[in-house]
Every structure is written in structure tokens, then in C-alpha cells.
Amino acid sequence: MTDSNASSHGADPRDRKRFYFHDTPQRRSMIAILRSVFFFLMKREVSGLEHFPLGGPVIVACNHVTNFDVFAMQLSLPRPLFYMAKEGLFKNPLMDVVIRNLGAFPVTREKKDAWSYDHALKVLAQGETLGMFPEGTRSKGRGLGVAKTGAARMAIETNTPIVPMTVIGTDRFFKQFPRRARVTVNLLAPLRPLPAETPLALTDRLMFTMAASLPPEMRGVYAEMPKGFGG
Hints:
alpha/beta, 6 helices
């Protein structure tokens, strides 16, 4: 496994930084610290781990309520998680070092980001776990928003399974401290691209599958499956 500090896009300033495609001693130390910290913040319940492959490339697609979702995701999985994070988080030098070691890489959300997309493909090419929030931004309790097709496009392009994941309860952190927030994490059966399936069709299939595993108030724009969908 190799680290990356080069890109086919040449002049992108992110090329000057080192990103990781494997577990590192620094990451393991940070995860141990996070596990201890979050023990006091959340009572985590995980189901569906039998759906998560222990080897090979996989995309984990999750709903997105708060910035804490990624910690609930990573602490629930037996493999390192590599994921996109908004570019602004990398501007603080200390935060930059920490989250890069935790597997994060920056994405510019205001426009199509070819560098970030290519980096995500490299994660999959290395046989690792790519974490994605299809909504692209936090719903902040308003329910699922309209999803972007990036995760589906990657799955189709690389023939990689998508494991839908739902996280419930991260919005209750600190609201009931010192009592721990109850956080439930559910992994669903993998979705594989169908022959001739379009990115939009796979995205809809993913989001309606995810919505069915969420409480009604969290299903948002995917609350009602169109008649005949998936039939």
C-alpha cells in the first residue's frame, strides 16, 4: 500500500500534502483516543455488521445529520474508513494533520471536484473502504435531502458494492450530558450496480433503501417511494 501526494490534475495545491490509503500507527492511536472520548458521549448500538465485507473495496453510504456522524461510522466498522471532508476543515494546520491521519481528504463542495473524485477512486483501487454522504451536506434534522450521484457513479465505474448505513442519534450529543446519547448504527445489505443501471437510478435505489431503515421523520424527500419503483 502506498501513500499519495501526486495527482493527474497537476497544479492542485492538495498535491503537496500526503494522504493515506492504509492504517497507520498515528491513526490507530487517534482511533483509540476517540473511542475513549466517545464512550462518555454515546451508547452505540450497531446492527448489520454481517453485511460489511472484511476485505476488498467497498463504499459505505450514510445519511448525514451532524459532523459527528463520521465518528459513529468509523467506530462501528472493523476496517479503516477513508472519506471526503469539506475543504475548510483542512485550513487549520493542527486539524489538517489530524483528519488526514484519520483518513479524510478534502472536497470542494461549491463545484465539481475532479481531484477529490479521483482520490476517492484511488481509495477503492487500493481495496479500502470509502465513506460517502450522498446528500453532500448535513440535513440538520430536516430529513434526507436530495442526493448527489457521486457514490453511484464510482460504484458503477469500479463495479464496487455500496453498503447503505443509517446513523440515528448523533444530533443528541451534549444535549443530555452527562447522560450518554443513544446512537444506533445500522448496516444494510450491499447494493451492486445492475446491468445498464444509470447513476441516478442507483442513487434513487440507495436512498429509498436507506430511507426505509430510518424513522419516518428522518426520511425527508425519500419518504414516499414512487409507485412501481423497484418493481
